[in-house]
Amino acid sequence: MTPVEIGMASVAAIVVLVYIGLYIPIALGVVSFVSIWLMRDNFDLSMALLKVAVSDSVMEYTFATVPLFTFMGLIVSKAGLGADIYQVMNSGFRKVKGGIGMATVGANAVFAAVTGSSIASASVFSKVSVPQMLSYDYNPRFAVGVVAGSSVLGMIIPPSAMLIIYSFVAEQSVGDMFLAGIVPGILLAVAYVIAIWAMGRFAPAYVGGRKSDDLEWMSPGEIAAKTLPTAGLIAVVLGGIYTGWLTPVEAGAAGALLGLVIAVARGSMTLKGFWEALLETGHITAAILFLITAASIYSRMLGLAGLPNQLGDYLEQSQLGYFWVMVFYVLLMIFLGTILDTTSIILIVVPLFLPLIEPMGLSLVWFGIVTVVGAEIGLLTPPLGISCFVIKATLNDDRITLRDVFVGAFPFAVVMLIVLILLIRFPSLSTAILN
To answer: Whole-angstrom Cα distance, residue 254 to residue 81?
Structure first.
């Protein structure tokens, strides 16, 4: 077999192994290691590249953002800030048709800015938002669909674990990726709110619900008490990065410390909870480090196989311009999203397409935003819509089936696709803050 054939076979093997349940880093690492060995018939070369991949991952200073932002997100989740923001948003939207859904989107957007995890968002708001919507006679499919759709905001609004992983794979600045995610994240949240308004206006039977007149306006003091801690965290983390006062690593450290202070001050942090947060941070950090190391040797294997160059030559011979390359890329992302999780998609696809995007003079930061949004659509699509599975498991309500969650999430997946098209058509939406 030629190196190109081995490279193509390895990509197919990785997709199959991940789909049948093999741990992603093991699939990437083992297949890449064996592929390099077969291509060069040199076991020592494979070992040398593996050592380089490990050392490059461990020695990267910016990798320190991973445990710091992970710890901050866990602490904030335990402090109950998500429920506080939801109560404030719910008070503001109480008179609007579908207002509780809009409040869920708004609260998820703010919560995402201090956690960076769509899974955490799905878990928190399944417990907080869905029961309340059901108590006001909202359609169960609409209720779970809103939570599923808005939970993906955690992966695009910084600090986002997916943006961090992409920054390592594409060798881009974590700070630039965080700043680039702000406008697209807000745009997606606004699009969700508009979609909910349109559903309430043109399909009221699907939304359901009744007026929530028993919900009272919050006083300015109550609003301040519930929003200032979160606003302070966002100001420290994103404000510090945007002004240049803090590097992403320093912003993560400052945010983690402030989150811990808030949790202790609110009496929601015990020694046991603190220890659990530390342990979970270690587990998540180790998993991400393993992912990045495996992705590093995978990209080196692709380079040795010459697969990206072959793909570029094929597209050039086919005379496919920017438009068709992006159409192909988006369709590939959506297809893979039905069978793989977001992390797998980024680690498998990005190294293949980066050599094609760079010669076009396109921003790799913008490409990262497009990649994450495109891959996130997969969180809402069967059979592997992770957010949908989390919501079903968290609710533990026999009245709501997994099919209900997927059907409810479908309109929000369509909205995501529309926003993705806008981001591709107008790259400045992603890079405006950086200029």
So the answer is: 17
Residues in contact with 238: Cβ distance below 8 Å, sequence separation at least 6, in sequence order: 113, 158, 178, 179, 182, 251
The Cα angle at residue 24 between residues 371 and 365, in degrees rounded to 5: 20
Residue with tokens 């709110």: 193
159 cis-preceded (ω within 30 degrees of 0)? yes
| Neighbouring C-beta atoms of residue 401, cutoff 10 Å | 14
Residues 126 and 101: beta-carbon distance below 8 Å: no
- Angle CA 276–281–287, to nearest 5: 130
Query: Would you list the domain boundaries of the chain?
Result: 3-431
- 186 contacts 141 by C-beta, under 8 angstroms: no
**Global confidence as pTM:** 0.81
Other C-beta atoms lying within 10 Å of the C-beta of residue 105: 27
| CA–CA–CA angle 80, 167, 389 (5° rounding) | 45
Contacts with 148 (C-beta within 8 Å, 6 or more apart), sequence order: 122, 379, 380, 385, 387, 388, 391, 405, 408, 409, 412
Q: Residue 265, Cβ neighbours under 10 Å: how many?
A: 11
> Over the chain, what is the mean pLDDT?
82
Q: Are 380 and 152 spatial neighbours (Cβ–Cβ below 8 Å)?
A: yes
Query: Rounded to whole angstroms, how far apart are CA atoms 312 and 298?
Result: 18
For 246-278, how does the pLDDT look when each residue is reduced to its tens digit (9 = 90+)? 888 888 889 889 888 888 888 777 888 888 888
Q: Rounded to 5 degrees, what angle do the CA atoms 122, 127, 128 make? A: 100
The pLDDT of residue 384: 65
Residues 209, 235 contacting (CB under 8 angstroms): no
**All residues at 6 or more sequence positions from 293 whose CB lies less than 8 Å from its CB, including other chains:** 25, 29, 53, 54, 57, 58
CA distance linking residue 356 with residue 253, whole number of Å:
36
Cβ pair 384, 339 in contact under 8 A: yes
Residue 57: pLDDT band (50, 70, 90) is low
DSSP annotation of 42 reads: -
Q: Return the structure tokens found at 69.
A: 């932002």
- Single-letter amino acid, residue 153: L
